[in-house]
Specification:
It catalyses: D-ribose 5-phosphate + uracil = psi-UMP + H2O. Keywords: Glycosidase, Hydrolase, Lyase, Manganese, Metal-binding. This protein has 13 helices and 13 strands. By secondary structure, the chain is an alpha/beta fold. The strands form two sheets. Strands 1, 2, 3, 4, 5, 6, 7, 8, 9, 12 and 13 form an eleven-stranded mixed beta sheet that branches. The protein has a two-stranded antiparallel ribbon with strand order 10-11. The structure holds pseudouridine-5'-monophosphate and manganese (II) ion. Manganese (II) ion is lined by residues 139, 141, 261-262.
């Protein structure tokens, strides 16, 4: 019988004990966000990108009811390939454990678990946010409300353009979640470099992000998250015209097929990947690998500060 405490992978446990840099990684992009069989290969590449930049990867997920920080390769393989892996937000973690489920953690759940485990930096692709019909459906990702109360830096390429980007930025402001552009003052739109909105803050280096994390702790004033928005270079983005066409078509199909709630994000991502014949998938992978590299460099810079 499991005791329900968070379990740490061996390497992650040792790194945390010795205050070595650790980067949290989510598992929902692996189980629900990327097509098989590339998903497992990409999951391993993300971990390697963190290692290459000098930090220890801690992919978070639930295996048979055990909540694990730092999945080993067998566990990662299981979440990437098994049928019936649940998509777990924060509210699902306890019931999923009690029922012995396999589950992949979203940005919300990964952030909360990572912070509970003492990890301050997290890399993902794109954040969840406010959906386009949210005024009617109330569909707003728990990623936002969780980051309001979770002290972690999330390196991402903004929010997916499938969302209402402006509304998401407004909600982040209301909720007190920090947003900084990495070497930009424009909020990125995931597949595309420019999501169409300005940012108040820009940082130039991993060291500056690390300094902000240290300042947050020492000031003791703000207990929420910091979004580090890392855009793709324009020559690596998805062709904006192809992007706009695919999005319009995907939104129309979504309405036609009556897809709602937590199925929306995986549905639209898989629509993009099939319609663009893999172009959006290649872009998606680039985004994640770049974010993993930046997150690791932030974690390394943060570990250099005295505690
Ligand atoms: N961004 C991606 N791929 C994904 C997700 C985000 O590029 O698979 C996942 C993340 O785990 C995020 C979740 O937390 O989608 C948001 O889902 P929802 O809108 O149901 O909260
Ligand atoms: Mn939702």
């Amino acid at each position: 019988m499991t005791d329900f405490h968070i379990q740490h992978g061996t390497e992650v446990a040792e790194a945390l004990r010795n205050r070595r840099p650790v980067v949290a990684l989510e598992s929902t992009i692996v189980s629900h966000g990327l097509p098989r069989p590339e998903n497992l290969r990409v999951a391993r590449q993300i971990e390697q990108a963190v290692r290459d930049a000098g930090a220890v990867p801690a992919t978070i997920g639930m295996v048979g009811g055990r909540l694990v920080v730092g999945l080993d390769d067998a566990e990662l393989t299981r979440l990437a390939t098994a049928d019936g892996v649940a998509k777990l937000s924060v509210r699902d973690l306890a019931v999923a454990a009690a029922t012995g489920a396999d589950g992949a953690t979203t940005v919300a759940a990964t952030s909360a678990v990572a912070a509970a485990a003492g990890i301050r930096v997290f890399a993902t692709g794109g954040l969840g946010g406010v959906h386009r019909e949210a005024a009617q459906t109330f569909d707003e990702s728990a990623d936002l409300t969780t980051l309001a109360r979770t002290p972690i830096a999330v390196v991402c390429a903004g929010v997916k353009s499938i969302l209402d980007v402006g509304a998401t930025l407004e909600r982040l402001e209301t909720l007190g979640v920090g947003v900084v552009g990495y070497r930009t003052r424009r909020f990125p739109g995931f597949f595309v470099t420019d999501g169409g909105f300005d940012l108040d803050w820009s940082v130039d280096s991993p060291e500056q992000v690390a300094a902000a994390l240290v300042a947050q702790v020492r000031q003791g004033v703000h207990a929420g998250g910091l979004i580090v928005a890392n855009p793709l270079p324009t020559d690596e983005q998805l062709d904006p015209a192809l992007h706009d066409r695919t999005l319009a078509d995907g939104l129309a199909r979504l309405a036609r097929d009556g897809v709602t709630g937590k199925a929306v994000t995986p549905y639209l991502l898989s629509h993009f990947h099939s319609v663009t014949e893999g172009a959006s998938l290649a872009v998606n992978v680039r985004i994640i690998l770049r974010n993993a590299d930046l997150a690791a460099r932030i974690a390394v810079a943060a570990a250099a500060w005295p505690t």
